[in-house]
Amino acid sequence: MLSLALRGMRTRWVTFVGSFVALALGVGLIATTGLALAATFDAPERGTERFAEARVVVQGTDEVKADTPIGVRTSTLTNPRAVPEKLAAELATVGPVAEDRTFPVSVPDADRRVGADTALVGHSWAVAAATPYRLTSGRAPTAPGEVVVTTGPGAQVRAGDRIQVVTPEGAGTRTVVGTVPAAGFESAVFFTAAEAARLSPRIDRVTVDADPAAVRAALGTGSGMTVLAGDDRRRADPDPDRDKEALVSVNALLGTAAGITAFVSVFVVASTFTFAVAQRRREFGLLRMAGATPGQVRRMVYAEALVIGVLASGAGCWLGRWAAPRLASWMSGEGLAPTWFRIGEQAWPLHVAFWTGLTVALCGVVVASFRAGRTGPTAALRESAVDSGTMPWSRLLVAAAVLLTGLGLLVTALVDNPGDVLKRKTYITQPMLLIVAMALLAPLLVRPLTRLLTWLPARLPGAVGMLARENAAAGVRRTAAVAAPVIITVALACSLMGTTATINEAKAAEARTQMQADYVVSSGDAGRALPAGFVRAARDVPGVTVSTSRSTGVTVLEEGTALVRSEARAVDSGTDLSAVSQLPVVAGKLADLDDGSIVVNEEWLTTRVGDRVPVWLGDGRKVNLRIAAVLGIGTGNNGVYLTARNAAGAGVDRVDIKVAADADRAAVDRRLRAAAQASGVEVLGAGQWIEAHYPRSSESTRLGLLMILAIALVYTGIALANTLVMATTDRVRDLAALRLTGATKTQVLRLVAVESVMVVVVGAVLGAAVSAVNLLGVRTALGLLDVRSAIVVPWPTVGAVIAASAVLAVLAATLPASFALRTRPVELAGMRE
Asked: Which residues cross the membrane (predicted)?
């Protein structure tokens, strides 16, 4: 049976080459994304960076711990406590100490002037000895107004230069008296100890040159401080978990890409193998007439699939091994992954890809080979002339089950929690079931849809429209197989890009609805405080209501087993918050927010106004706060609100300003902009701020989606061309018959091209139907969440996908047809299978 299979493969090499290419590329994609995904599981080990020269570092506890029935659970604090001045003085009796203060600063054109590639921070030079910073030019600062700066690649600043520096006090000119090389983990400006203490009274940490045991003894128990020595000093570095955090987004992106590519690959490979077997009904009929049993036919098909599966899966693994490092390099270059992101030596993704490819190859021929084996010889020969019985009951039942499952999950999500529909995991995976259902139903839908779409072209002068219509309607298996890749491309393009754009537009619409302020000033980065001078100046402007807010967080113990941290905003008062915003309050009143209460959203387990909930604040304090109001979930941006007293250590990073109706708006605008210029910040109108902070899509998100879409589209495009080449090559006798009836080569090629475009249009309509259901689900979810926003359809992307598919389909169909038509029609018509 194996020898017969090999001889058959040699005879029908075009069909088997097509199956080989589809499977090899599919396995290659799975291997590529799998290897890249595996590289995100482990971040590189970094030693202590900033405090590498310190013996001991003392800082506030940066974790909250809770004993649960399943063990101790920990969560990171948003605003760890400061080191009290009294405690710092006591530590000085143990050994030499240096007080470390970290505060935000900025320098105009910092990337050019000092070569900064990250946001600048300010430090006291007194702690420089405990860090890797060493002067490369100039001297240490000794007087107010003198600074030392880090210099990165391309830095233009030199010792003796005067630069403008924006500090928490406001903008001012400083003299650069020295430079140190950039360390890579931060860009910094160093001040004298006295000036740093004035700019930032908070002591973030203290370095102690003493034995760690002696330091712990001096602190005692219950101080709320953590002693860091040895490798633990890394916890005092700027963003010590930045490598792991950077890999979280990369992992999510590649996980999504791997899931989509695996789905697309399995779907297209299975479709290709099924079509390849279905093409050979006449061959199977001849084998049955020659005495082959159904079991022998099936074993021959399995043997062919096994040979192709092993060879193509091996080639795909080699392709993935070659492509994965190049994918990682591209992601690093585009900023989608850290610059150090590299592919490791993991082998398991290759095993997964190989065995997935082989399994799909075998499973792809099971149903088709079973049908071919059980059909009688005469029936098989008769069936080969026209596609009939293309939709068996088993396939119809499976398609109905998949369709109902997909729709049921969508409806369940809308009923139980509409917010889940807006989550990336849901709106990316939701279309998959609908795509599978549509592809399974394609043989049933292709014939009526083709006749509907070609009703007008078939009535135009000439026979091309009519012949294309009848050919596509008669060759249901061929039309469905060619339409399958188009269904995927259009459905994924419209669903991925359209849903993301719709949700982004909904978030912007929600922000516009909630915004009642006339001006907004923000630091740009959460946690970077605005200059106190601007806040004071804004409050002094007559005729305005000023509401300041801070970024913080709260942690709750849910169901007694999980610590869950939520982002929160700390405001001056509920009254000021009500004046500058119109939040979706479903219970209670914002004006009731005070130091003993909290505003939560409907996602919290406890949402009854007046109930008290135990929470850990951003600095680790555990308090019981009364629920003053409950907010609707909305698009997910309606978080938790506290008062400033419950956000100790957090600086003001946003100011909302509401101008009174009877105030002189022109005078208010002049004073606010003058205060902003003096402080080095930017005042934006409410509309300008929303436009700046609610873009249609961030660059990284856009590139990530385009990467996922490109991977899927390239593969489905190749599969489309592959299937068309197989289908057109199998129709050489039909084309010859047209030539013998008097059609010219040009007319035949025109017919093939029109038929290819028509099949692409059929696939595009079915794919658009899947996208319509998905986008309608998103729109319904937004409506249930009381967010009024229109559906955004990415017409340019969808149009480009359809156009590219049409061009590719025409080329893939007409090129093999033109080569076949070089042979005399009489010879083609007399060719045997």
From this structure: 252-278, 299-324, 352-372, 393-415, 427-446, 479-498, 703-727, 748-773, 793-815
